Amino acid sequence: MSQLIIKHFSTPDERRPFVAHGHADILNFEGGRTTGLGVFEPGWKWSEDIRPIAGTDSCQVAHTCFVVSGRLAIAMDDGTRGELGPGDMAIIPPGHDAWVVGDEPCTLVDFEGMSQYARREEAGTRPGVTEEVAPGIH
After folding, report:
1. In CATH, what number is assigned to the domain containing residue 69?
2. Model pLDDT for residues 3-45, shown as the tens digit of each residue
3. Residue 9 lies in a domain
4. Distances from the Cα of 105 to the Cα of 70, 101, 113, 126, 136, angstroms
């Protein structure tokens, strides 16, 4: 039987720090469903802050996201560009770069692409890289 599950981003199941400029708070649900709250600080750029973690030339994750605050520019590998702002809902296919526009952090909720996003290799496989567990999580 299905059950009601309520979680809050103030106590995520996992916090994944980026190389710099932010983090993703992850909520894991039954059936492999994952939702993430991305906090992208001014100066964040996928190709600088996530590429070293992902190990790919561009982001190869599909995203279905809602922008809560701030602005985010997207550049697809095919040259298509767009900019997201508060209240925008977007579907972003694999093959893109992205960066924060302006001096305000961009906060977004991603309903699709967070199961592996910014997930680090197992401890010891990348020098100087560790996974941070969110405070209060047991």
Report:
1. 2.60.120.10
2. 899 999 999 999 999 999 999 999 999 888 999 999 999 999 9
3. no
4. 5, 9, 20, 27, 24
